[in-house]
Amino acid sequence: METLSSSRGLKKSILASAEIKFLIQATEDEKRFTDEVSKVLKIPVEKFDKSLLDGHFGNPIAAFRVHLRGEYADKFGNGILSFFKEEEKKKLLLEISNHIDKHGSLYLRIDKQSIFDKRLIQSQIDPVRIKLKLRFKAPLPKMIESFWSVLSISK
């Protein structure tokens, strides 16, 4: 029996969601950075939700968040590894199990300045935070395989 998705050539998405978060300090150029994130990660600026926070010394901080679901999350995830430097890809592959939680989410932290180089590197300091959640729960090896296949596909 042919299903609706197979008859139309559609596939069910692997990712349930993708969330991208980052902070912009008062000393940073908000428009320049959001435009660059939009261009590199292929997310329309209109999708960014912005909220304002107060920093430690009362300085304004802009918090940005994008939440994508289903096929939009897959499209975001597809090919993101192509932006990583080769040594970063190898490092991520070796450490990927440390980036996956028990709920099936993969966490990546990207250096903000590497966005401008279009050659992403991981960083724990003032990063662009990316959370990818699988549509299904599985043993860790299957989750690793699924994440790696989504991230490696270049479309």
In short:
The protein is of the alpha+beta class and 155 residues long.
Describe it for me?
The chain is α+β, with helices and mostly antiparallel strands. The chain has helices at residues 4-7, 30-41, 70-77, 86-95, 112-117, 140-152; strands at residues 15-25, 49-54, 60-69, 105-111, 127-134. The chain has one domain (13-152): 50s Ribosomal Protein L5, Chain: A, CATH 3.30.1440. It is built from six helices and five strands. Mean pLDDT is 85; it is low at 1-10.
Topology, please?
Blueprint: H1 4-7, E1 15-25, H2 30-41, E2 49-54, E3 60-69, H3 70-77, H4 86-95, E4 105-111, H5 112-117, E5 127-134, H6 140-152
Antiparallel strand pairs: 1-3, 1-5, 2-3, 4-5
List keywords for this structure.
50s Ribosomal Protein L5, Chain: A, 5-stranded antiparallel beta sheet, disordered N terminus, 34% helix, alpha+beta, 6 helices, globular, single chain
**How many domains, in number, for the residues?**
1
Distance between the termini: 30 Å
Strand content: 25-35%
Could you name the CATH class?
Answer: Alpha Beta
Task: Give the name of the CATH superfamily.
Answer: Ribosomal protein L5
The total count of helices amounts to 6
CATH topology: 50s Ribosomal Protein L5, Chain: A
Largest sheet: 5 strands, antiparallel
